[in-house]
Amino acid sequence: METGTGKVLYEKNAREKKPPASTTKIMTALLAIECGNPAAPVTISKKAASTGEATLGLAENDVLTLNALVHGALIKSGNDACVAIAEAVAPTEEEFVGLMNLKAKLLGAGSTTFFNTNGLPHREHLTTAYDLAVIARYALGNNQFREIVRMKSYELRWLKPARRVTINNTNKLLWLYPQATGIKTGTTVKAGKCLVASAVHLNTELIAVILHSGDRYGDARKLFEYGFQRKGDTENVYQQYQTTATG
After folding, report:
1. Cα–Cα distance between 223 and 226 in angstroms, integer?
2. Catalytic positions
3. CB neighbours (10 Å) of residue 127?
4. What is the rounded CA–CA span in Å between residue 121 and residue 104?
5. 151 vs 33: CA distance, rounded Å
6. Is 3.40.50.1470 the CATH number for 21-246?
7. Confidence of residue 243 (pLDDT cuts 50, 70, 90)
8. Phi-psi region of 36 (alpha: psi -120 to 50; beta: other; left: phi over 0)
9. How far apart are CA 128 and CA 130, in angstroms?
10. In this predicted structure, which of 54-63, 162-171, 224-233 has the lowest mean pLDDT?
11. For the chain, which terminus, N or C, has the lower number of CB atoms within 10 Å?
12. What's the pTM?
């Protein structure tokens, strides 16, 4: 998908509902950025601290800023950070999930249904490749979001207890493909290896979405190379037409 126009350059099973795994966190982080105070201190609840799988290692009563938690969710894919974000922005995680679903519908991602903030397995937590591209396109319009997802690493700081940890981005495409600028990985047994990626070449920015892939980074690279080539061919034809018309 072209970021600028929303035009789809290539799709395969793009409207088929599938589990998104941690690509869910695009929406979680986006709402935190739009609705929350980045400098606000957030005290980690017992529920957030007990969230499993990929985590930041948050403990009950730890205190971090909302901004730090957003970085931890997008860069390190912390499931615990997502629950903490939800509880900071809305009265409960469940109500925050309701906001996620409302936002998805408003953006035109009509086949998406979220049941949690982090993408942990739930049989009805589903989206489509097209919907994820739509959500990602909107998210990239936010400069703070755009800046975070392109970071290869980040120093995560706790307010209480005083602590600093350097976290590395789970999106290896940032190292493997020079044009890559983001966005978010996702992995569960059911969802497989997923990736929502962005890349820029010359004046063109593209979004690629890969769900349940055997080689998500290789697939993303092929999609980007196809898209940039197609855009280049179109521009060359247009330039040739302009030259002929004015010659």
Report:
1. 5
2. 22, 25, 77
3. 25
4. 19
5. 16
6. no
7. very low
8. beta
9. 5
10. 224-233
11. C
12. 0.93
Around Cβ 196, how many Cβ atoms within 10 Å? Answer: 29
pLDDT digits (tens, 9 = 90+) for 149-175: 999 999 999 999 999 999 999 999 999
CA dihedral 156, 85, 195, 113 (to 10 degrees): 180
Q: In which band, very low, low, confident or very high, does the pLDDT at 240 lie, cut at 50, 70 and 90?
A: very low
Domain limits of the chain?
21-246
For 242, counting Cβ atoms within 10 Å of its Cβ (0-12 exposed, 13-18 middle, 19+ buried), the class is exposed
Calculated CA dihedral for residues 79, 30, 19, 200, nearest 10 degrees: -110
Task: Residue count of the chain, please give it.
Answer: 247
* Torsion (CA) 81, 149, 160, 57 in degrees, nearest 10: 50
**Sequence-ordered list of residues with C-beta below 8 angstroms from that of 133, at least 6 positions apart, any chain:** 1, 8, 14, 196, 207, 209
Tokens 């940032």 map to which residue? 174
**Which of 172, 237, 229 is CA-nearest to residue 204?**
229
Mean pLDDT of the chain: 94
